[in-house]
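Entry for the shared binder. Reason: the reviewer on the internal report wants the predicted structure included alongside the sequence.
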Amino acid sequence: MSKHPINSAVRFLLELASMAVFAWWGYHLSETGLRILPAILLPVGFAVIWGVFAVRDDPSRSGKTMVQTPGILRLVMELALFGTAAWMLLDLGQSKWAMLFGSILLLHYIFSFDRIAWLLKQK
């Protein structure tokens, strides 16, 4: 499975952007001083899910995992988290950013066809 450095960088930037969107959306959940809590907890939750549930020996990651996850479940989880970030942008009234994020995400997964095929074979 190829691990092109540009595609890896795009993936990393998508992860960072998603966590930023989770924080931004969380901040706008409330008008009170407690708005900082979801702004912190949502991206932390994203990072925990992203880091804990992985496919062992995934070359696009460290190859290590805390919770062995089947490839199809990992793929669904990634798409759900990234899709949630796109939805959050739409909910924030940022349709242009949502379209840009979604377009980059789609291109990333198109160029990750070999990783997707690998994930689908992992039990």
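Summary line for the report: The chain has a mean pLDDT of 93.
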